[in-house]
Design brief:
Largest sheet of chain A: none
Helix content of chain B: over 70%
Number of domains of chain B: 1
Largest interface: A-B, 25 and 20 residues
Strand content of chain A: under 5%
Number of helices of chain A: 11
Oligomer: heterodimer
Number of helices of chain B: 4
Helix content of chain A: over 70%
């Protein structure tokens, strides 16, 4: 039987004590590092151009520069100013085209022309790593407490469903806070340093991206909850969650190169629908949202059922 | 607090300290070797720039000190010691943040995402050692 107070208590305890467990610390560290490294990959060309521009203006300041050289440097600086936007957008477009394999020009235009292309490139790269980061934060929801028999203290105080769902909600909220921290840091950095797109557009699209990433996190968090309650070893739970999250899509991707029909197999997991969340607002986008919710509900139901029956 | 009740996060923090401490120690050795090589080559060339060598030496000293503080505080976390864990960990975090600031201000390095990446671990250490694990590091 679900009890709201118990659920709140288990979830809030899980969030507050997330940091005290090794999994929480590793999750924060890896999410921030991975996110910032991916952001660095997309921002690096821009930083390089900024450095080049600073070098030109420093050279232009030199008083003993002959007029011809001064003219050439000024021309180069002006050209660089004009080229920055074009180069960054075309680089972002090629990254998105390569990673997403968009369903059509409409989606590619939406991601690169209607929205800040550089932010989209970062979000697209982050989506590929989201299952990995989710597994890192969600692998130890119940497994180590089951193996240490520590969960038995909770079993006499509330129903198993409250423990399972409370831990799942708590870990999801913890993960949402960690991703929020990453997005806030990036938002501040982009607002201060990136001048290719309007600031408001970048912040708005980052906020949208955050919500879309958090929708994609849901089914993987539910998968981790199921695996974590089924296996008594936290490390084993991490490995199996990661294998399920990445091995299947990888095998399908390899198989589809031999027989294209196999590519349809990707629609058996949430990984196959991830780019639907980056469609323009419409039927496909709503479909993507509903499918993520359906996968989450299915995995949560299965995990909860198993946790309710197993020997603890 | 009993030795056996060390939180998992503190153990993870200690392991990360050993990993980073080991890496920093390795960088110090490589840097020292590089500096010695440059010195022996510089002896043959007149007008060797003294200032840049001093800066390189100061940077190496900071890296070596960071390595020492990381490894010592790692042992402190494992033993849940107040001075060796909390104080040394805080000292490492302040030193590391200070050297990043030094790089940006003195060496005129532009502030980018790479600098933010280098501040993550010291900031995490500073916060966790002084809030989350402050009641554990009491021995």
């Amino acid at each position: 039987m679900l009890r709201r107070k118990h659920l709140e208590l288990v979830a809030s305890h899980s969030v507050r004590h997330g940091m005290r467990g090794g999994a929480g610390l590793i999750s924060i560290f890896m999410t921030l590092i991975t996110g910032l490294v991916l952001a660095q990959c997309t921002v690096a060309p821009l930083e390089l151009m900024d450095k080049q521009k600073a070098k030109f203006s420093e050279q232009l300041k030199a008083e003993d520069l002959d007029p011809q050289m001064r003219g050439e440097l000024a021309a180069q600086q002006g050209m660089l100013d004009g080229e920055v936007n074009k180069k960054v957008i075309s680089a972002a477009r090629s990254v998105i085209d390569w990673v997403v394999e968009p369903s059509g020009d409409e989606q590619l235009d939406y991601m690169t022309k209607e929205r800040p292309a550089m932010v989209t490139a970062f979000l697209v790269l982050l989506m590929l790593f989201t299952p990995f980061l989710t597994c890192l934060s969600g692998f130890n929801q119940t497994s180590s407490d089951i193996s240490s028999r520590g969960l038995r203290f909770l079993l006499i105080r509330t129903e198993r469903t409250n423990i399972f769902l409370g831990r799942l909600i708590g870990t999801y909220l913890f993960s949402a806070l960690v991703f929020l921290l990453l997005f806030v840091v990036l938002g501040m950095y982009m607002a201060a340093k990136v001048h290719v797109h309007p600031k408001a557009d970048m912040i708005f699209w980052l906020a949208h991206g955050y919500l879309r990433v958090m929708v994609f996190v849901m089914p993987y968090m539910a998968l981790c909850a199921w695996i974590s309650c089924a296996i008594d070893s936290a490390f084993g739970s991490l490995i199996i969650s990661l294998l399920l999250a990445y091995m299947y899509p990888w095998v399908i991707s390899l198989g589809s190169k031999i027989q294209p029909v196999i590519a349809y197999g990707q629609y058996l997991t949430p990984f196959g629908y991830k780019w639907w969340l980056f469609e323009p607002f419409g039927l496909k986008f709503i479909g993507g949202l509903l499918i993520m919710l359906a996968f989450t509900a299915l995995l949560t139901f299965t995990g909860n059922r198993y946790f309710g029956k197993r020997d603890l | 607090m009993a030795e056996g009740s060390r939180p998992g996060g503190l153990t993870a923090l200690a392991v990360l300290n050993f990993v980073f401490g080991g890496l920093w120690a390795l960088f110090t050795l490589i840097g020292l070797a590089g500096l010695a090589l440059l010195n022996s080559a510089g002896a043959k060339i007149d007008g060797e720039p003294v200032g840049s060598q001093t800066m390189a030496f100061v940077s190496l000293l900071l890296v070596a000190l960071s390595a020492f503080l990381l490894i010592t505080s790692g042992v402190g976390y494992i033993k849940m010691k107040r001075f060796m864990g909390r104080t040394m960990g805080t000292a490492y975090a302040i030193l590391s943040l200070g050297s990043t600031l030094l790089n940006v201000l003195v060496l005129d390095e532009s502030f980018g995402i790479a600098q933010i990446i280098f501040t993550i671990y010291p900031v995490l250490t500073l916060i966790m050692v002084n809030t989350t694990f402050s009641d554990d590091l009491v021995n």
